[in-house]
Design brief:
mainly alpha; two-stranded antiparallel sheet
Length: 67
């Protein structure tokens, strides 16, 4: 199956029997990222999480849901 990376527009061929190919066939809006782009996004995410300015989204308090 031929796929195109959404970040770098690189075209690749993946095995038709792979899990990623099945996801793309069953859900056409599934976005494919090549291994290089996926690794780059993962590294940047870890850098952002480990920075002192990172503030994860906190769940709202229960009192908010009781209104």
């Amino acid at each position: 199956m031929k796929v195109k990376c959404i970040l770098c527009d690189g075209k690749q061929e993946i095995n038709d029997q792979s899990i990623e190919a099945k996801k793309i066939r069953n859900h056409p809006l599934y976005l494919y990222t090549c291994p290089a782009c996926s690794k780059r996004v993962t590294q940047q995410t870890l850098i952002r999480i480990n920075s002192k300015n990172y503030d994860p989204h906190r769940p709202k308090s229960e009192s908010f849901y009781r209104l």
